[in-house]
Amino acid sequence: MTVSDRSGDAATSPLAASVGLTDADLLAMYRTVALARAVDERMWILNRAGRIPFVISGQGHEGAQVGLTWPLRRGHDWIAPFYRSIATCLTFGMTARDLMLAQYAKGVDPSSGGRQMPGHYGHPRHHIVSVSSPVATQILHAVGIALAAKIRGLDQVAVAIMGEGSSNQGDVHEALNFAAIHRLPFLFIVENNGYAISVPAEKELSVRDVAARASGYGIPGVIVDGTDVLACYRAGTEAVARARAGDGPTLIEAKVSRLTAHSSDDQQTKYRSADDLAEGKAHDPLPIFRAQLREAGVLTEAAEAAIAAEIRDAVDDATDHAEAEPDPDPAGAIDWVYGEHWPGETPPPWHGQGGPAAPTGGQH
Amino acid sequence: MAIRTFIEAIRDGLAEEMRRDASVVLLGEDVGKKGGVFLATDGLWAEFGDDRVIDTPLTESMIVGASIGAALNGLRPVAEIQFADFIHPAFNQIVSEAARMRYRSNNGFTVPMVIRAPYGGGVHGALYHSQSVEAFFTHVPGLKVVVPSTPYDAKGLLRTAIRDDDPVLFFEHKKMYRSVRGDVPDGEYTVPLGLASVRRPGRQVTIVSYGLMTPYSLEAAERVAGEGIDVEVIDLRTLRPLDRDTVLTSVRKTGKCLVAYEDNRFGGYGAEIAAIVAEEAFDYLDGPVSRIAGPDVPGVPYNHALEDWFMLNPLKIADAIRKLAAY
């Protein structure tokens, strides 16, 4: 990264030293948080401008996402994320272009080739498991990945990530029980933003903290402030080390705030008070992290401006690139139901002709 | 060549694939020391150990969901659902996840896994140990569904299913486990998916069958043969992908088609066969495409009189053949 090169990789402020990182690392983390926010904000603009039909957002979650997953080994460890995991996917190797192609659902969209709604990211090379819409199913996939890693001796850690609303699903219980029994190299991250669409935490959780449930599985349950990126990094580092050492899974609950409506089809003022929304804004991880890095002397004015310019360019480039890419060809929509085409599985009559044939009637 | 029971053929198939490929692992309830409630995995834990024969908690969604994850990370899991009746907690993982993973990731991720489940009635299993569940899954593109009817096929198809790169549901009729025996070669062989078998050639009526209904249909065909009705019996073996050609070729020859399936009649798998035959062999038909199937009650009732009422058998199938032949 150009900015960190300028400040020198070896530079280590007391803040960076306190978490065992360099200033360059902190700047890279900041850049990822800020890039995720900028991509996300662009998504909403494109939605309001009628360019993309749907947005689901990660605003308010980015600090926790970057801090918690930063300790993982990219392309080696695995993550099974959810639809708000924009910053997580960037941390794990996806680019602004990759994410924007998913918003536009273009043919070269690496997540799904335009088959899935925006927010359903995935990338085989980066070990980011394809996201679906039924919530919490991915926790079992991550547990199975961890099981395979253990059996195959691969020294990998698998992470499942979801919101506190999804954490109520039965799959979560089944997954944590099994992962704990076998002490799998597994990490369960719950990004608790206090709402399952419109339902507040007190009506979806019988306890205040999801982390309290960890004790039922005999595993550590850790609560972190999702606006404190470095506290998240510390918690993530400990949990990953535990997992890699064979000491089993950890549940980390990050308290975050949801800065946007659930999605572009939701109006959160209908169920959230003005005070509640203002309280949420006060817990925006981006300005908090920025202020922390400025105060520590890590983020100079020049570095901040350079990062901002770089991000602006990256988001513009990603938008232009995705706009220019062609839509997927309907002739390919029948592909990849299975690994091969089966003669018994008859394609629709219009397959390969670019669109439904006009009804002719009485063909025979 | 050795004579093996249906379940011995399945056990042999599992053991041989596990010896051949270290990435094949088993997960399920009681599959370890006990060897499964039907003993399909008997002896495998002793041979392959804890890492490859994994006793799970009573969590069907986890059995399937974790198998999906393990498949994403280089293993070839064979999940056992103790009874097909208990597969429903895993429905979301099978239908929303395993079946769609390849499609939704545009071929980015694949799920090479097999889900084995004993199905079917006639064993005093009542509502929750007798169900036929194939129609729920044959409806779903992305899944392959296999129902063998002989020990030879059970082993050969299971091997192919384990080597396949897509999720395969492998339904075994539990009444056949010990009651059906047959020749099984000692050496390496496989049976391809998506290929039906003509078990009995005939000229007048085609019966399309699978699972336990295949031996029943063969017996029914023998019964009516003495009355001058010449029946062709097709064993589908793979329900999806379906071997249309074998079905349509037969019906175009005989002009009459009877579909036999044990599941409830309404909306069952046989309805799809009937629709395909009606659409694609209409000009050749010399009688209504007919179905003989289980009655439309929510499950197989327990008392033997009630169970006998529910179950198809060779006599009932023979009656249906006579009716169609006389049309």
Walk me through this protein's architecture.
The complex is a heterodimer of chains A (364) and B (327). With 364 residues, chain A is α/β, with parallel strands linked by helices. Chain A has twelve helices and seven strands. In chain A, the strands form two sheets. In chain A, strands 1-2-3-7-6 form a five-stranded parallel sheet, sandwiched between helices. In chain A, strands 4-5 form a two-stranded antiparallel ribbon. Chain A is globular and about 50 Å long. Chain B is of the alpha/beta class and 327 residues long. Chain B is built from 13 helices and 14 strands. Chain B has helices spanning 6-20, 44-48, 60-72, 91-98, 101-104, 134-138, 151-163, 176-179, 213-225, 244-254, 269-280, 304-310, 314-325; strands at 2-5, 24-28, 53-55, 76-80, 114-119, 144-146, 168-173, 181-184, 197-200, 205-209, 231-235, 238-240, 257-264, 290-294. Chain B has a seven-stranded mixed sheet, with helices on both faces. A five-stranded mixed sheet of chain B has the order 9-11-10-13-14, with helices on both faces. In chain B, helix 11 (269-280) links the parallel strand 13 and strand 14 (290-294). Chains A and B meet through helix 7 and helix 8 of A and helix 3, helix 4 and helix 5 of B.
Task: Using the alpha-carbon principal axes, give the shape of chain A.
Answer: globular
**Biggest protein-protein contact in the assembly:** A-B, 52 and 51 residues
Q: Give the topology string of chain A: H per helix, E per strand.
A: HHHHEHHHEHEEEEHEHHH
Q: Give the neighbour order of strands across the main sheet of chain B.
A: 3-2-4-5-7-6-12
